[in-house]
Amino acid sequence: MKKIFGLALLAAGALTLPTCKPDTAKTATETAAKSPASPAEVRAQFDILRDSTNVSWQRMMASDDKKMTDLRALLQDLSKYPGANQAQLAGLRTANARLKAARYSRQSMASSPLIDRYDAAQDSVLKQVYPLAAPGGNAPSAQVRDYVEAVQLADADVVRYRARYDRAAKTYNAYLQVHEAELAKLGSHYQGLQPLPLFEVN
What we know:
By secondary structure, the chain is mainly alpha-helical. The protein contains seven helices and no strands.
């Protein structure tokens, strides 16, 4: 699965992702280690950390959504070529369309097998698509080649997005553990907060 064997991709570091502003991320991390002097500071610091995890998650999901969109367009484009196996392509379009509904959420990802099943389902589709789209590494058109490259890049980015989310979530969880009692006094939006599940990408 991606979260297990993706460390090689992470180490390669060949891809560049959109990131939060470095100063914002640094401030969030540093403030988590401080002992705030007032409830207002507790709220402000916690909100920064919560926003950081939200942004990391949203960017990760947006990348995955874009991968599915590009894959759908690629499969549709392949169906236009003479000799295309229409039944196979239709089956792959159906499998791709089902992926989003099967994807983990921020809470359901606490179940590692669910993440593994999603990764396996997506990998199964991709492994069938690549030989069809670029047999022998040769795509039938520049457009197909561009779709293939976009999907491959997004797939390679999965591990890095997950590692980035884990870093933000770990800082959030650490702050919550230290200041849970203080946060609970700030109102309903800060009560009953739970630690965020992690991918545990190192």
